[in-house]
């Protein structure tokens, strides 16, 4: 008796007759209405009387909404594997996870050859099928770096780009009868799909033994492989129902089959199969499994189990939490941040506050690091890790205007600032939030928020009036100036150290169209140009905020600096005098200006993060660009010690806030400097940075990849750090939240000293 415990599924096998095209599609729709799980079509491209199976699958996907679709089986010799991989992935995305892939090695070789394919021997056909499977899976593995490279006897891929990533993990089922094909099923396939009428020798039992032996030898659990069967008979009537129920039940319990496909084109037969046979078989098999104690459900592959982190108890993940681990489909979409290609042992996707508190309680018991991610755009990459747990709150993405009169808005930490701007704009409101719309609310609104309107309206955190936070001890608190005021003080500037913010309330302000100008300077004489730009910013009205982005000379072009200037007033007659001083800063390579809606500045086009890795960024604050600072920046450009350097204007309204009003205490500086490097430039940056850093005054944590005591003291000066240490000891004494510019509690800091 062999029962692999898989969930039972039922499908139809429809003949794709070209002269009855509408009837073929109708049978697929009847299959869905009959509550079948799967509809399949044979694939013989050389058969002129048949519809092309791939075109048919695509059309049926558009005419159905739930049922899965597959070829039974697709003819690989006439469908190049890399192209087929993209086609199946595309169908899966368009059908929202309903495509599966049945493959055959080829059988009718005269027909294949007539259509332009190569005529292969049985052994060659199996080899070609295995090669094709490797290429197909390589194309689907969109999260892996580099292209697909494969050199086989029959197929090759020489750097083919990976992707798209299918919506779900597409299974590859093989139509197999002979020992060599059965062995391939055991080694590499997700399912075995023979037709019962063709199984002669080996028998079913012998075939299962070959598959299981090959699977075991390949380090797989035989239960990973679903056993599927095209049943006998093309018609099913009321008198045949009992016999078919008995037959299928025996196939399930005695031979381990779990997907049963009815051949035939009878609407009545499809209805009987789906509505009467399938429920009866499910009931009989469930009863037998309960009596025998057969474990049911999918089995995690041995390869996936080997990827688990030793410090994580995977079996105790709280029920209901959406968790993704290495080996799961979609892991590549959640492993990385914008900068860092992580390899976490578990990613928990929180859908609610209860999920957050449950995940924190679980993470507290594990022996691995915990990272918290909202948008994943942080320069440091600290919202992922290697081998630890990532708590992803991107699904907590509420954007709601609570009160038009007070302009108070409620934001989830997973919302992206581009979406916030888009939704506030119809109300004539906005919120300065950095310079990029894909940035998540949570990280930025607990660290600072130096944006396009900073000089006029201050930092993002200056407008936070309440926050809700899940703590390490399981509490979920609402904080504001009257409730847990000390924690509210800490959240605004050092929020990542104290828990997981689950919601923020901010007071937005009137924002309409703005003037956006870009002026590109030749920075061959950077020491002269940069200070003049800085003086122009300081002397400008507060309506003007500017960022200067700089890159070294390349490809025969000089080092350049692009000043992006935003004026919170769309009147050209007001803007022009403000822009004039910037036209006198230095040699201009180009300039342009537009009147645009504020959301256009922070447009969000998020499509996922793949990670880049190896990026080092340093940060500092300064009041004026002194000759020493200008010289250090010029040296960085000349020596190619940076790939990208930026000065952001602060000052203005930012400095109207008292230094002790919140954990962000930097309220006298006028600029924030960030300088980053990757590859060969990194070593040069690390050599140059200490000299430049000594000229700076403070640190903005969002642009700093390094950590350490001296960085903490620069980020949180004087009494600010001492107060944060005391609060850390109260709210997170075990330092569960230590992956985001960690502040050790007071006693631990003293002991370390």
Automatic annotation (TrEMBL):
Signal peptide limits: none
Domain annotation FAD-binding PCMH-type: ranges: 340-511
Claim: Nuclease is one of the keywords in the record: no
Keyword Protein biosynthesis recorded: no
Keywords, in A-Z order: FAD, Flavoprotein, Oxidoreductase
Gene3D superfamilies listed in its UniProt record: 3.30.465.10, 3.40.462.20, Luciferase-like domain (3.20.20.30), Uridine Diphospho-n-acetylenolpyruvylglucosamine Reductase, domain 2 (3.30.43.10)
A Pfam family matched in the record: BBE
Family annotation (InterPro entries): BBE, FAD-bd_PCMH, FAD-bd_PCMH-like_sf, FAD-bd_PCMH_sub1, FAD-bd_PCMH_sub2, FAD-linked_Oxidoreductase, Luciferase-like_dom, Luciferase-like_sf
Alphabetized GO MF terms: FAD binding; oxidoreductase activity, acting on paired donors, with incorporation or reduction of molecular oxygen
Cofactor(s) it depends on: FAD
Family according to the record: Belongs to the oxygen-dependent FAD-linked oxidoreductase family.
Protein name: LLM class flavin-dependent oxidoreductase
Organism: Devosia ginsengisoli
Lineage: Bacteria, Pseudomonadati, Pseudomonadota, Alphaproteobacteria, Hyphomicrobiales
